[in-house]
Amino acid sequence: MKSLKFCRQILTIGLLAGVSATASAQMLLNGAGATFPYPIYSKWFDEYAKVDPSVRFNYQSIGSGGGQKQILAQTVDFGASDGPMSDDNLAKAPGKILHIPTVAGADVVAYNLPGNPALKFDADTIAGVFLGQIKKWNDPKITALNPGAKLPDQEIVVVHRSDGSGTTYIWTDYLSKVSPEWKSKVGTNTSVNWPTGIGGKGNEGVAGQIKQTPGALGYVELIYAIQNKMPYAEVKNSAGEFVKPSLESIIAAMATAQIPDDFRFSITNAPGKDAYPIAGGTWLLVYEQQKDPAKGKKLVEFLKWAAKHGEKMARDLQYAPLPDSLQQRVLKRIDEIKM
Fold first, then answer.
1. Those residues with Cβ within 8 angstroms of residue 216's Cβ, 6 or more apart along the chain or in another chain
2. Which of 62, 66, 59 is nearest to 85 (CA)?
């Protein structure tokens, strides 16, 4: 009996050692940044663990501003941002940072009104609300766009991001293109001095503020509005058409993009009658020269998998995959990463 018990103990120790060895053999890749693509990135990280169980990901969804700061400080293996890094920020980096586009999505005008009426907005009205000039739901500019909608004599509570955010970059990039006053007074950035409103942290925080605040209006990435069952508006595009944010209208905007060699591009206020006007791409930020060759190799393998296979998962989460021609260019760029 003793010898059988001893054998069992040895077997148990051996199994535990095996589990411990597997856990310690797992390589941890750290990333931080955008909340906009967090739902699709989470899916990718989970799926990739099945492809390569030796890797796991620790991704902090802290906003694009934080992602840019952390990649500059080299405290993460990759950053994530929905706004391309500025020339000034890139110049601060200790090495060349590559922009790897992943998917495109939409900022939507989400709101909290009794009965959840279907609403339409145009550029002047959105700019007016966020400049603090249109203060009530029954303002003539809103009622003129929405005949028949029951709009209350109620204050509009504007909700915006409180953190550095690529969702904000897309939003302010759009407003700067459609409103000269916005461009001169506020401008385009991941973080701006808001003329009015209350802040929420992350897409999650803004969605939460809108849901719990009667009369609220704010901007979130499309998938957050869908997951939170929030109403969101049709927006008049540059062709004069009211377009609902959807996978099809994001793809239509993406199809118009003129994409330079460094992959820093904007698709807000895109031409074309089917294009949703407040759409944008999102990027993973990685150093061309990797400090840790072993980590760099695993990161490159993941990036290639994402470009080839992860893209196929985008549509289910209401993100637009990259067009094939851009996908091929991205794969070539990933090949330029050095260990």
1. 111, 112, 156, 157, 158, 159, 209, 210
2. 66
Q: How many CB atoms lie within 10 A of CB 294?
A: 10
* Chain segment 23-36, per-residue pLDDT in tens: 446 899 999 999 88
114 vs 9 pLDDT, higher one: 114
SS3 content of the chain, % helix, strand, coil (to 5): 45, 20, 35
Neighbours of 319 (CB within 10 A): 25
Domains by residue range for the chain, with CATH: 27-104+281-334 (3.40.190.10), 106-279 (3.40.190.10)
Amino acid letter, residue 181: E
How buried is 140 (Cβ within 10 angstroms: 0-12 exposed, 13-18 middle, 19+ buried)?
A: exposed
pLDDT for 296-320, tens place per residue? 999 999 999 999 999 999 999 889 9
Mean of per-residue pLDDT scores for the chain: 91
Full-model pTM: 0.86
